[in-house]
Each structure stands twice: as structure tokens, then as C-alpha cells.
């Protein structure tokens, strides 16, 4: 819902743009030009030219005056201008075109000719006609005009920068402005103002143009002074064209200040002047800006009428620049009325027309971001917002940058990250402290209030709401006033001020209904329903929620519809209508799934964050099933939400790994999203279906791949036969009151109630080691074997709670695959003690028996993920990649061994200070000696670039490097390379792009198994990223281990792997070997865990062994042959 908020403020900045280019190519006089050979026009023509381009005329009198002109060129030029006023564009063009090959030495001629050619589609014709003519400044100017009108501003600049005449310089200034280089544009305008005669009636165009540059730079007061000065000069010189332009720009500033009535009066006068002088382009601009002004006063119908009129005129003129900005305005209006399909079409068309015009691109990109955010496709929204932000930073446009950043902050809010959102809003507030735009501040204060409300800072939020409301009332912003009041009511509901909330909502609903604010109306009904729910007025609650659901659905507001269904279910459950409650939960879940599945290309972090705010329906329905002892249904529901993003991405992995045509892939996702979005109907939907069918045929024909195939979530009723023999999956789940264990074997499903609450299990875990104290951030803290302080008594207690009750269901000496809730996600179950003597020391380990001694143990995010990994086919190859001993110069070292603390501040420029991994090289060389077909990247060759280049075709990848966690985001460090496009830090977002074909990735580095903890996804870190990059299984570490002992452990692990043991059994044997031969302390061996497929890997023996045995055999045979030969010779 909230991204609708971006609409109004987008309009506020869009207002600026159409007029900033109003004066791009004024049809101005050439008299008194310096360094310019111009036609010596008669005084009569000069007067006529000014009248025909800038004043109201009597057509009959003008026609008489034209007939008196002596020179045929003057006569035809004047007649062409008169025909243009009458919109007889082709006749006007024909009069001018016949002089083209003569290259008349008057820049105004080319202004008119190119504009007319643009309108009647003759641009290519005139360009072709001049191909064989000699180059001169006039030909360059004509080609620059053609480039400019087509949005190719860079080409225009190249053609113009060597010409020092006034008109080319004026066009050059506008070309620089179009690409966002306001400084160069301003320098040129200042130069023109210094050289052009100030007593000429057209001098004011330079003043107004300079005002627009100040406006674009956020200097509104300076712009206002210049516009007023330009207006006064225009009136004094009876230059009605420039007078109208100045009025439009002053109206823009009035709208900015909230003086809407004054703005609309100025626009009315400007439109009258445009009609008087019969200037179609000026009329189009006036209609467009009037439309914008009406949006400020909340008169949406009037706004749309003016936009439509303007659009019709601009299409007639074929003016790409104006069309780009107008379409951005129209798109924003469509968002406000929840017509999202029309909004997308408008912004996409506007983006095409933008060409190289940076501001136009920003407006349309941000508009697309707003649409996708409204439709909950936050991945796509962030993509557009970031592109808009990058462009605004490039052109140093403070207002546009602020708007892009506010959009990104709003996205964080929608993704349940209010802290992050608030920090963005506060940063923007500091950056725009000197700005006087009320709409910008109104929006910013409102969004700060939303973030503060979600952080339970209700009093501070309430004050921010009231500050924003004060601004909205001062500028008569009806939409924002309604919006702010709606969310203020939500603030009151959270404070249990139900009466205050309901008074506000009942009052503001009428305004929403009167102004067709349908999305707001849905939200207001929702909040009234929630308020009544908390007061246990269930009948009233249901009435409001049904209205909210129906209204939200009508405008594709999925989030409001989902929340209304969720509260309906809660209400029904409270009334003990269990069957109906179940139906409502399922409806909410189906809508969540549909809105998620319709998303375009997936951004994992965004998808996970969005789902964090929508998971309650899944959890509540699961609890409902468990209370009814419907254990199979409960487990199926757990599988729907546990690791759902990982499962979804793995489903898409085959498509993304097979298709190497990025445009085709993006088109596939975009069209799929449009079809599933629910915002297109009838003919448009049929057209999209046809396009999508064609794309799917391309995928089948070119890549032999059917994109319709998707693996489904695991279901107890249909998928138990997919579980391999001798394997047991154990999945734990915390309900509201208890802990459940689900035992899944081939054709067998057993639920076990463990009668333990979540807090009891969490407290047991904390007693095992200080590592699990929630006051300490595991990502940041470092523990040696003493500080790890493993408590075997507590470990045994956890064993008795988690494993002992289910042990009878486990196959002896079989494989166990654990799927754990987030509270156990960093606990290696293999270190649980299966026996403990009460007289024994908890810190003596040699006589203890660990669970790993009885079972091969591995992990999976969910049963669905396990099966998709297990069954995923790979391209067979025997290639292996070993990477280790990354080199970082000694001047950067600040740590003595793997995994020491990193100061947070040291990450400000990503400058890590670490010591080398002393045993990493030895570790890699020992593994290499056991295997064949090995590629090795050691020391200075162990760079990020080389790793990415060599990783895609490797069946096994071993990384013995540094890895670190910063702000819960893990990354791997490689050798630094001076001349490289890579920075030496491989992050999660880069990993998922690798397109691996790997049976196993081993991350022999500290804390490689950690990352962000999500309630349903578990750990979001490198393990998840390597899965989604194409690895079937990953070995990671859960805490720091000295690299000497890591080296010993890995040597043992690869020994067992190379002997043919499967991945989990090899890991089990390596742990038992380490326990017996080095140390029984789990600190050293329990950190490394396997996730994913646990099958064996087929290795070739090391070439060094093969060559050695072949050499010995060859020597024996050779000796035998020589001995026999010697014997035969001697016995002849």
C-alpha cells in the first residue's frame, strides 16, 4: 500500500521537467549576431517574423504584409510560419524544403524546417537530401537539431561544440542540460547573456532558460527571480510567447509552494496567450502543467482531461522530449487511481521517449518502481529505484536524488525493515534541510512517522504525522491529508486508542469515497476491522474486513487483501468457526503465493524480507492443524513456508542456468509477471498470452527446455516414496505451545509431540556454550577452545529432549538429515552427548559418546529442498577446483589467525587487515595429492576473478580462504589484484550468479555457515547462495577454528571422500578420526557441517599415484623380460 505514497511526491518533481525544456529551440531573431554571416532581411520581414512567432495576429493583415515582401525567400519563410500557425504542417514544410540544398545562412530557418520535418515524418528525408552537400556550420546545426529532437544529445553536443554562433550555443546549452550537465549549460547561457543585445525582445529567453537551470539544481528562489525578470522583459517587449513561458514556470513554483490557486490562474493566462499566438507546442505544455496543478488540488478528473489534451498535441508534434515527461505525469496519475496496467504502459513508453534525457529517465524509472512496489514486486521496484538514484547522483540533482532515496527508504519499510527505512529518511532530511518544497517535506515527515510507528515509538510518530498533516492542510493536498490521517489512525489502534482511531477513519472515509481514493478506502475499512477485532466486536469486524477485502481486490492491492483475510480468519477462529477460519487462512496463503509467483526475476533478500511480514497466515494455519491432530496437513504447511525462497530459486535455477540469452530470459519473466499480476484484461491479456507462448516455444526449440515444469513442495500424501532407503529426515517445529518432531522415512511419516516450549529449548542451548548466548553476536565474536567452553551435561540434556524421544524411529547406523527451526539453525546436532554420568566433569570429553558416532548426519533447509537437490541432474565431469592461501600484503595484516575480531569501522572502505592462513597452502597441496583432474589456484593466483572464471565446470570446489561477516552479510576474501575488475571480496549476491555444476562446495573458512537469520528461511548466507548458484551440497563452518586443525580435518575428510564414502559418511568418519587422534573437544571438529545432497562423489585417483604404480609395474615387467631374454641367450 505504502508505495502509493510515492505518487504525489513524484508529481511534485515531474512538474518541473516539461517546462525546463520549453525554450529549447526558440525561433529567435538572428539580427546583431556576432561572428555570423546572416541573411540581410528587410525590416518588414523582421517585424513579420516577430509577430508570426511571438504575438497575436490578424491573419488577413499579416497576409497583406507578406504579399508586399520583395524577396521570395522572405515571402516563403513568412508564409510557412503562417501555415504552421494554422497547423498546415506539410504545406509549410514544402515552402521551406525547396531552399534546403542552398543551405540558407539563417539558423532560424533550420529550427522551423526540422520541427516541421519531425511532425510530418520527413527527418530522414532532409538528412538524406543533404548527404552530398559540403559541410558547414549550418549543415552541422541541422544535424544537431535532428539528433536533439531524437533524444541523441551526445551527438548534438559533438556537432555543436565547435560552432560559436548564438543559436548553436543556445542549443548546445540545452543539450548539456538534457544530459544533466547543468554547470556547462549555465556557463554557455551566461556567455550568451553577456553577448546578446539586452534591448532585443528575445533576450528574455536566456533569462528564463537560466531560471530553469537553477530550478533543476534545486535553487528555487534564484529561479523565481529570473522567471519574474524574464516575464517583465517579455511584457515590456510585447513578446507573448516568452510571457507565456515565464507564467508557466512561475506557476510551477507556485505549485511547489502550495499556492495552487495562484498557479492555476497563471496557467490559465499562459494557455490564453498560447491560443492567441496559435503556438501548438506552448498549448501542449500549458495543458500538461495545468494537469499537474490539478493533481495538487486533488481534482483527478480535471487533471486527466488536461493530460489527455496535452498528449494528443505532443503526439501530433512528435516531440520525444515532451512526451517522455508527460507520460511520466500520466503514469503517476494512473498509480493514484490504481490503474497499474495503464501506469506501466505509460512509464515504459515514457522511458522509450526519454532517449538520453537523464531527468526524463529518472522520472519514468522511479514511476515504474512505484508501480511494482504497489504490486508487491519489490525486487523489480528496487531495480528501478536504484537506476533512478544512480542517474540522479550522476547529474547531481538534489531533489531527484532525494526522491529516489525516499523511494528506496519506503521500500525498506514495506520489507519490514523500519530501522533501515528510518535511517534513510533521516539522511535525506539532512540533505534537503535548505529545500523549501512543502510536498517533499510532507512526504518525508509522513514516511518517518510510519517507520517510527513500526518501531513502537508511537509518541514521536504521532508528532511527525501531525507535522506532515499541517503541511498537507496548508497546501490543500487532499490525497495526502487522507493518507496521513489513515495511518495516524493505525498509530492510535496500536496504542489501543480505539475510539480516537475510529473517529478519524469514519471522517476520512467520506473524503476517500468522494475522490475515488479506492486503495485508501480499502485500508480504512481494514483498520476499522482491526480496531473492532481488538475490542472483540467480531460481527462488526467481519463487515469491515469483507469491505476491505473486496475493495482492495478490485484495485489489486494484494497486501491489504491478504491482511483482511488473515484477520477474518482470526475472527472466525475466535468464534470457534474452525472450518471457515481454515478457508480464510488458505485464501490468504493462496494470494501470497500468487503475488510471489507473479514476481519478475527474483531478488532473494527482498523476497525473504517481504515474506517475513506475511508468514503469520502459514503459522496460524499450521497451529490450527496441530491442535486438530492433522499432522500431515501441518507438515505440508511447514514445507510451504520453510525455506520457501530457496526452494523457489532452485526451481528457477535450471531455467536460468540453461538460458544464456539474458534478453530472452528477462522477457520471459516480465511477460509472465504481467500475465499473473491480475492487472491486464481481455485483449491485452490475450496479446500477452500470445507473446508468452512464443517465448516458451523459443525456449523449447533453442534450448530443449520446457519452462512450465516446476517441482512441487513435498507432500506427505504423495512423496514419501521419494525418500531414499536407509535415510531418515527429522524436522522440528515450534508451535505456539509445543515442540514437534516429524520423522520422515521411505513410505513412513511419524509425528512426535515433545512437550517442550520454545523458551525451554533456547535456554538449554544457551547452557551448552557461551557461543549461544543471545547477548553475543555469533557473527562478530571470536572463541578459542577455552572460551568455547563446551558443556557436555547441557548437551546431553538437549539430546534427551530432542533425540531420545524419537530414537526408536531412527534406523540404526543410517543417515539422518535434520531440518531445523531457526532457534536451532546454528547448533550442530552431531555434538549432542548420548550418555552422561552425573559424577563426571561436563568439560572432560574423552569418555563421552557423541551422536556423530552413531549416525551420518547432514542438514537441509526443508524436505522439499533436500529432494530437489538430491534429484537434480548435473553434467558429468571429473574436474575439481582447489583454492587456497590468499595473499594480502603484510601492511594490511592485523589478525594473528583465522577468524579473529574485525572492528566494524574497518569496513567503511572494505579495507580488511588480516594475517595469512599459515596452513592453507599445505591443506590444498595435501588434497591435490589424493585426487586427479585438479585445477589449483594458490597464493597470488587465488583471485576472485580467477575463481569466477574457473568455477563453472567443476564437480567439486574447495575454498581454503578467509571469510567474514559484516552486518550479517558473509563474504569470502581472495588475493588482491591491482589491475582487475573484481575487488577480491566474493559476496552472497555475486555467488548466486556463478552458474555452478558442482556436487560439493567445501568452504574451509571460519563462520562460512553464518549470515542473516530469518524466521522461516533460517540462515541466509553462503550456503544458500551456493545452493542457488548450482551446488548440490555445501560444507560450511559454524564458528572459528584455527587453520592448523582445519587443515588436519580437511585432509582426513578428503581421504574418506576419495575412498568412495558418501559426503555425510566421510564427514562422520573424519570427525571420529579427529576426535580419537587429536581432540575430543567439539570445538575442533563439530563446526563443519554438510547441507544438501549427501551422495557419494566418483573420484579419479591422483595421477601421481597412477603414474607411480604404472612405473613400478612397468619396471617389474621390464626386469622380467630382460632376465628371461638373458636366460635364453645364455642357454642357446
TrEMBL record:
What residue range is the signal peptide? none
Keyword Membrane set for record: yes
Report if keyword Chaperone is assigned. no
Q: Where are the TPR repeats?
A: 324-357, 362-395
Taxonomically, the superkingdom here is Bacteria
Query: Can you tell me where the transmembrane regions are?
Result: 1103-1122
The CHAT domain is annotated at 794-1093
Q: Which InterPro entries match?
A: CHAT_dom (IPR024983), TPR-like_helical_dom_sf (IPR011990), TPR_rpt (IPR019734)
Query: What Pfam family does this protein match (any one)?
Result: CHAT
Q: Which UniProt keywords apply?
A: Membrane, TPR repeat, Transmembrane, Transmembrane helix
List the PANTHER family: RAPSYN-RELATED
The name this protein carries in UniProt is: CHAT domain-containing protein
Amino acid at each position: 500500500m505504502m508505495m502509493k505514497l510515492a505518487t504525489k511526491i513524484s508529481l511534485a518533481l515531474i512538474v518541473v521537467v516539461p517546462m525546463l525544456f520549453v525554450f529549447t529551440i526558440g525561433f529567435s531573431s538572428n539580427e546583431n549576431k556576432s561572428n555570423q554571416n546572416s541573411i540581410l532581411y528587410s525590416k518588414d520581414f523582421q517585424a513579420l517574423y516577430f509577430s508570426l512567432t511571438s504575438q497575436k495576429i490578424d491573419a488577413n493583415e499579416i497576409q497583406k504584409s507578406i504579399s508586399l515582401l520583395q524577396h521570395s525567400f522572405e515571402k516563403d519563410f513568412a508564409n510557412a510560419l503562417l501555415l504552421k500557425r494554422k497547423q498546415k504542417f506539410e504545406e509549410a514544410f514544402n515552402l521551406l524544403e525547396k531552399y534546403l540544398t542552398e543551405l540558407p545562412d539563417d539558423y532560424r530557418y533550420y529550427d522551423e524546417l526540422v520541427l516541421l520535418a519531425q511532425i510530418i515524418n520527413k527527418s530522414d528525408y532532409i538528412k538524406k537530401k543533404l548527404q552530398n552537400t559540403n559541410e558547414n556550420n549550418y549543415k552541422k546545426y541541422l544535424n544537431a537539431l535532428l539528433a536533439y529532437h531524437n533524444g541523441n544529445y551526445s551527438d548534438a553536443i559533438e556537432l555543436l561544440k565547435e560552432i560559436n554562433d548564438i543559436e548553436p550555443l543556445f542549443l548546445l546549452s540545452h543539450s548539456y542540460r538534457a544530459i544533466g550537465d547543468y554547470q556547462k549549460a549555465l556557463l554557455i547561457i551566461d556567455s550568451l547573456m553577456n553577448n546578446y543585445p539586452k534591448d532585443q525582445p528575445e533576450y528574455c529567453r536566456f533569462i528564463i532558460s537560466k531560471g530553469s537551470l537553477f530550478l533543476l539544481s534545486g535553487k528555487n528562489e534564484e529561479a523565481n527571480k529570473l522567471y519574474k525578470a524574464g516575464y517583465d522583459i517579455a511584457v515590456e517587449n510585447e513578446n507573448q510567447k516568452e510571457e507565456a513561458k515565464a507564467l508557466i514556470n512561475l506557476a510551477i513554483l507556485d505549485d511547489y509552494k502550495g499556492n495552487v490557486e495562484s498557479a492555476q490562474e497563471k496557467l490559465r493566462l499562459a494557455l490564453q496567450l498560447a491560443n492567441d499566438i496559435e503556438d501548438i507546442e506552448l498549448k501542449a505544455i500549458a495543458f500538461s502543467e495545468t494537469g499537474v496543478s490539478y493533481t495538487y488540488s486533488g481534482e483527478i478528473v480535471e487533471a486527466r482531461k488536461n493530460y489527455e489534451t496535452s498528449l494528443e498535441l505532443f503526439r501530433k508534434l512528435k516531440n520525444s522530449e515532451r512526451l517522455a515527461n508527460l507520460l511520466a505525469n500520466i503514469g503517476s496519475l494512473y498509480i493514484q487511481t490504481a490503474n497499474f496496467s495503464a501506469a506501466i504502459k505509460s512509464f515504459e513508453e515514457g522511458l522509450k521517449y526519454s532517449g538520453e534525457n537523464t531527468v526524463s529517465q529518472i522520472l519514468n524509472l522511479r514511476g515504474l518502481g512505484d508501480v511494482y512496489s504497489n504490486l508487491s514486486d519489490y525486487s523489480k521496484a528496487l531495480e528501478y529505484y536504484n537506476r533512478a538514484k544512480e542517474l540522479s547522483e550522476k547529474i547531481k540533482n538534489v531533489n531527484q536524488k532525494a526522491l529516489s532515496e525516499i523511494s528506496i527508504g519506503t521500500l525498506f519499510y514495506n520489507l519490514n525493515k523500519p530501522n533501515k527505512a528510518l535511517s534513510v529518511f533521516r539522511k535525506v532530511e539532512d540533505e534537503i534541510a535548505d529545500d523549501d518544497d512543502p510536498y517533499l517535506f510532507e512526504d518525508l515527515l509522513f514516511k518517518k512517522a510510519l517507520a517510527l510507528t513500526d518501531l513502537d515509538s508511537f509518541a514521536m510518530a504521532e508528532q511527525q504525522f501531525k507535522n506532515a498533516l499541517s503541511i498537507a492542510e496548508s497546501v490543500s493536498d487532499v490525497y495526502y491529508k487522507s493518507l496521513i490521517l489513515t495511518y495516524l489512525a493505525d498509530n492510535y489502534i496500536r496504542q489501543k486508542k480505539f475510539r480516537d482511531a475510529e473517529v478519524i477513519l469514519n471522517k476520512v472515509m467520506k473524503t476517500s469515497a468522494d475522490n475515488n481514493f479506492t486503495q485508501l478506502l480499502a485500508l480504512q475499512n481494514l483498520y476499522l476491522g482491526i480496531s473492532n477485532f481488538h475490542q472483540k466486536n467480531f460481527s462488526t469486524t467481519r463487515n469491515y474486513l469483507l469491505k476491505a477485502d473486496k475493495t482492495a481486490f478490485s484495485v489489486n492491492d494484494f497486501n491489504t487483501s491478504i491482511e483482511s483475510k488473515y484477520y477474518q480468519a482470526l475472527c472466525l477462529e475466535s468464534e470457534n468457526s474452525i472450518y471457515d477460519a481454515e478457508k480464510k487462512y488458505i485464501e490468504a496463503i493462496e494470494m501470497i503465493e500468487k503475488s510471489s509467483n507473479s514476481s519478475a526475476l527474483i531478488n532473494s533478500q527482498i523476497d525473504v524480507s517481504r515474506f517475513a511480514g506475511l508468514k503469520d497466515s502459514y503459522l496460524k494455519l499450521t497451529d490450527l492443524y496441530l491442535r486438530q491432530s492433522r499432522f500431515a496437513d501441518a507438515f505440508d504447511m511447514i514445507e510451504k513456508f520453510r525455506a520457501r525462497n530457496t526452494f523457489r530459486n532452485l526451481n528457477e535455477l535450471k531455467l536460468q542456468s540453461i538460458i544464456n540469452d539474458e534478453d530472452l530470459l528477462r522477457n520471459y519473466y516480465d511477460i509472465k509477471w504481467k500475465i499473473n499480476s491480475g492487472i491486464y484484461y481481455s485483449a491485452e491479456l490475450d496479446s500477452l498470452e500470445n507473446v508468452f507462448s512464443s517465448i516458451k516455444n523459443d525456449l523449447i526449440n533453442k534450448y530443449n527446455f520446457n519452462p512450465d515444469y516446476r517441482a512441487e513442495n513435498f507432500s506427505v500424501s504423495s512423496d514419501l516414496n521419494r525418500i531414499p532407503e536407509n535415510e531418515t529426515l527429522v524436522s522440528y517445529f515450534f508451535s505456539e505451545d509445543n515442540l514437534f518432531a516429524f520423522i520422515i522415512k521411505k513410505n513412513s511419516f511419524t509425528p512426535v509431540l515433545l512437550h517442550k516450549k520454545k523458551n525451554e529449548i533456547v535456554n538449554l542451548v544457551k547452557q551448552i556454550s557461551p557461543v549461544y548466548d543471545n547477548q553475543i553476536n555469533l557473527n562478530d565474536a571470536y572463541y578459542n577452545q577455552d572460551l568455547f567452553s563446551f558443556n557436555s551435561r547441557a548437551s546431553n540434556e538437549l539430546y534427551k529432549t530432542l533425540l531420545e524421544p524419537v530414537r526408536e524411529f531412527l534406523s540404526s547406523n543410517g543417515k539422518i538429515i535434520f531440518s531445523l527451526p531457526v532457534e536451532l539453525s546454528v547448533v550442530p546436532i552431531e555434538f549432542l552427548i548420548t550418555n552422561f554420568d552425573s559424577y563426571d566433569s561436563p568439560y572432560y570429553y574423552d569418555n563421552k559418546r557423541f551422536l556423530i558416532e552413531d549416525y551420518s548426519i547432514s542438514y537441509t533447509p526443508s524436505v522439499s529442498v533436500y529432494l530437489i537437490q538430491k534429484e537434480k541432474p548435473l553434467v558429468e565431469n571429473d574436474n575439481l577446483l582447489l583454492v587456497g592461501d590468499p595473499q594480502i600484503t603484510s601492511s594490511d595484516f592485523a589478525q594473528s589467525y583465522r577468524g579473529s575480531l574485525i572492528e566494524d569501522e574497518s569496513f567503511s572502505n572494505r579495507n580488511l587487515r588480516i594475517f595469512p592462513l599459515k596452513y592453507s597452502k599445505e591443506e590444498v597441496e595435501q588434497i591435490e595429492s589424493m585426487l586427479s583432474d585438479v585445477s589449483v589456484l594458490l597464493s597470488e593466483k587465488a583471485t576472485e576473478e580467477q575463481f569466477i572464471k574457473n568455477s563453472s565446470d567443476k564437480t567439486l570446489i574447495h575454498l581454503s580462504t578467509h571469510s567474514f561477516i559484516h552486518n550479517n552479510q558473509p563474504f569470502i576474501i581472495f588475493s588482491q589484484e591491482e589491475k582487475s575488475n573484481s575487488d577480491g571480496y566474493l559476496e552472497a549476491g555475486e555467488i548466486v550468479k556463478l552458474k555452478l555444476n558442482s556436487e560439493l562446495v567445501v568452504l574451509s573458512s571460519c563462520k562460512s555457515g553464518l549470515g542473516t537469520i530469518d524466521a522461516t528461511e533460517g540462515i541466509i548466507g553462503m550456503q544458500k547462495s551456493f545452493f542457488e548458484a548450482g551446488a548440490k551440497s555445501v560444507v560450511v563452518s559454524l564458528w572459528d577454528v584455527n587453520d592448523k586443525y582445519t587443515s588436519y580435518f580437511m585432509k582426513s575428510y578428503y581421504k574418506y571422500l576419495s575412498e568412495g564414502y558418501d559426503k555425510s559418511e566421510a564427514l562422520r568418519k573424519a570427525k571420529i578420526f579427529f576426535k580419537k587422534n587429536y581432540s575430543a573437544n567439539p570445538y575442533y571438529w563439530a563446526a563443519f557441517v554438510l547441507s544438501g545432497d549427501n551422495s557419494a562423489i566418483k573420484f579419479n585417483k591422483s595421477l601421481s599415484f597412477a603414474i607411480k604404480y604404472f612405473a613400478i609395474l612397468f619396471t617389474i615387467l621390464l626386469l622380467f623380460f630382460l632376465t628371461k631374454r638373458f636366460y635364453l641367450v645364455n642357454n642357446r
